[in-house]
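hey so i finally got around to running the thing on that chain from the lab meeting. sorry it took forever, my laptop kept dying and i had to restart like 3 times. anyway pasting the input first so we r on the same page abt which one it is
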Amino acid sequence: MSRPDGLQQNQPRGIRSEEVAAIAAAVTCVTVVGIGLSLSIPLLSIEMERRGASSTLIGLNTAVAGIASICTVPFVPRLAARIGVAPLLGLALVVGAVSLALFPLLPGLALWFPLRFVFSITLGALFVLSEYWINAAAPPERRGLVMGIYATVLAAGFAVGPLLLALVGTEGPAPYVTGAVLMLAGGLPILLARGLSPTIETGSGRGILGYVRLAPGALAAALAYGAVETGIFAILPLYGLRLGYDAQGAAGLVSLIALGNVLFQIPFGWLADRLDRGAVLLGAGLAGAAGSALIPFAAGNPVAFGLLLLVWGGIAGTLYTVGLAMLGDRTPANDLAGANAAFVVLYNVGLMLGPPVIGGGLDLVPPHGFALALLALFLAFAGWLAATERSGPRS
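ok and heres what got predicted. didnt touch it at all, straight out
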């Protein structure tokens, strides 16, 4: 399939050394930030509970992250076009680090809401610009593999954060300082590779819906993955408790999903470089639906259930990886930054929709409504993708 900018997906060319350096800088930056982020999310929740906040208030404060991204991410490409990708990444890292360090210093939780908004703005900018940088630097015929490596390293980084938190503790300034230092450390590779950062060209001025019309399957993958991933991580432990697992065992089910995410990204990225990426994405969606349908049957056998979660969670995670690679194929170079911003926005919309939908399923049809809700989400995504791929990408 031809790209809108005229390049072919399968040109026989390897990755040049300057492309490797640029990709490595962006991946290192966002991975270090991912470690800091995965450290900060549980840390802030624990501290709010320690200060007497209710679970509802903690949930509302956490939801500010999605609201901040949805409100501000669409403006990131325009600002980066004005001041440059590398300078804006550096600014976001500094503001994010300072914001994180300020949390324990504020006397009341009311101020945590605007501070969480600012902190989340910086995270949105970091992910949009880093993923744009990676997508722009990756040669089209290797984009799936590159995105698979990126997703694998990022998933590993997210696994490190909670472990680091266990080492430094959750009290006092140490965990906040640790997270802030990690964010600042993410600026080092950007500083070293600042001459390799891409220049954002003037786009077509499309809005979110314009990018949905341009790459409907890729952006649907972002929405579906946001809903599925967040819903799984939030509701799977509750499903485990309903099945009779103790708290530790129920939480351990999430670890199997996370491990699957680490293991499956590179193989599926490699596959997406050799087959039609739309077909790979559709296969992942259908496999996710099949895995959801099998959950009630495997749930009674811990070994079978664990293996299913490992494989099913890994395949579900590839929606983001292959979706990003497909986005690069379907988007002209001058619109890629805006399309990446739309991708992050829709991921955050899914992040806000997934837990109530999947949690509602668990409450309506206990206990296997968890699996039925996920089945419905995967089938809806696969149906949308099949319909839009049949009609072809629109300009």
